[in-house]
Amino acid sequence: AGVSVKEFAELIGQRPADVVRKLMEMGQMVTFNQSINLEAASLIAEEYGAKVEVSTEKAGEALLEEAAQSSGEEHAVPRPPVVTIMGHVDHGKTSLLDAIRQTKVAEGEAGGITQHIGAYMVGVRDKQVTFLDTPGHEAFTAMRARGAKATDIVILVVAADDGVMPQTVEAIHHAKAAGVPLIVAINKVDKPGANVDRVKNALTEHGLVAESWGGDTIMVEVSAKQRTGLDNLLEMILLQAEVLELKADPERMAKGLVIEAKLDRGRGPIATVLVQSGTLHVGDAFVVGNFSGRVRALVTDTGKKTVEAGPSVPVEVIGLPGVPSAGDVFTIVKDERVAREIAQERAMKQRAADLAGPAKVSLDDLFAKIQEGNVKELPIVIKADVQGSAEALAAAVEKMPAGAVKLRVMHTGVGGITETDILLAAASKAIVIGFNIRPEPKAAALAEREGVDVRLYSIIYDALNDIRAAMEGLLEPTL
Ligand code: GDP
């Protein structure tokens, strides 16, 4: 909360490293992103001929942060888990989403027509589960690259007749990178070629061992087509949710995430917001991205108008002045004036950030970042022309002597560098190494936009050499 050391340094026109040194001299060990306390800030500002003023009429983001701080979790109560379905193409992600929606929503809401608003909720006994409607790890990681965490639990769908495939492995890596627990749904068990044990066996090679085999990964057998095993899957989701102790305070001002947004011809801009804490009401003043406004109406996943939505509930919000982006944070504030101020402040900050360019990690500035204490670990995504090379390179990287940073290979794969690889790297502040392959044109453009460092090699030794040199600050700058 408050002002970070880095922001403070910028405010008084000094280098962050100098401010950190001053703080250290004062006996305070802080990093750039930690907040600076008022006393220290005043002292340092004075030294540089500046003055710290605390506005009682707190403006903008400061007010938001304070609200986030002071709200605490006194009234936190269990909230429904939010689930994303992932898996290889054609393994049944969409079928499973539809099957659960149709059986459960139809049961609970007599005659309720389900709307596609980007997420839906189903009732399981007296509890509820929220499903995000866009399956796949691409959407999941795209959100994460924007700093948004919408998902509590990942359902990994694996077709029993096809087994573990490349995108199954990708999904595992993406869920793991996000630290989100995973439940395996072995689908299509109705098919003649289904072989559940073969799937379980293949998954052990990727660190997922079924509970029935002495591991700790929940695996359930389902058929989206015949709608079997769905209740069991839902029970397991609730079980996992209980372990996670998911909680939120419904009494505070609401905060949520935009999971989908569009311009509707009749109703104007509409965003589906997944409420993450607090309760959202009609009439609330909000900020989302650079927009501000007042909630005019709320519409549920069954197409009904409602006056409020609590934690983990997805609702369509009407009353936006423009269309926000998926992943934008939606925050309720005291009144519309405050909302406007924050939106303006953000627009200004964004312009400044656009000018400054992306701030991700690259091998070129790795050494400087290590020196600043900003980087402790360097995650790496490796793509290669053949599996053998990818594995050899990954093994060699992981064997490199640990210097000031820990190298961690978070994903290896075969084939050209894709947009998904870039998003994963962007979300995890990783670099991408391509061996005997090139990025797809769209991926190259995305890497440029996101500031992801992509390095291409055809000799393993060269790749290792560059990483070592980067860690030691000896890398020749690339042109
Ligand atoms: P997605 O690409 O992962 O979303 O997969 P889809 O849901 O589109 O399913 C791909 C194909 O598998 C479709 O033809 C489905 O009808 C079929 N399918 C999905 N689930 C099952 C199942 O449980 N049993 C059988 N036999 N077919 C299924």
Automatic annotation (TrEMBL):
It is found in: Cytoplasm. Residues 81-229 are annotated as: G-domain. Its main location: cytoplasm. Keywords: Cytoplasm, GTP-binding, Initiation factor, Nucleotide-binding, Protein biosynthesis. Residues 78-247 form the Tr-type G domain. The keyword ATP-binding does not apply. Transmembrane segments: none annotated. GO terms for molecular function: translation initiation factor activity. The keyword Protein biosynthesis applies. GTP binds at residues 87-94, 133-137, 187-190. Belongs to the TRAFAC class translation factor GTPase superfamily. Classic translation factor GTPase family. IF-2 subfamily. One of the essential components for the initiation of protein synthesis. Protects formylmethionyl-tRNA from spontaneous hydrolysis and promotes its binding to the 30S ribosomal subunits. Also involved in the hydrolysis of GTP during the formation of the 70S ribosomal complex. This is Translation initiation factor IF-2. The lineage of its organism: Bacteria, Pseudomonadati, Nitrospirota, Nitrospiria, Nitrospirales. The gene is infB.
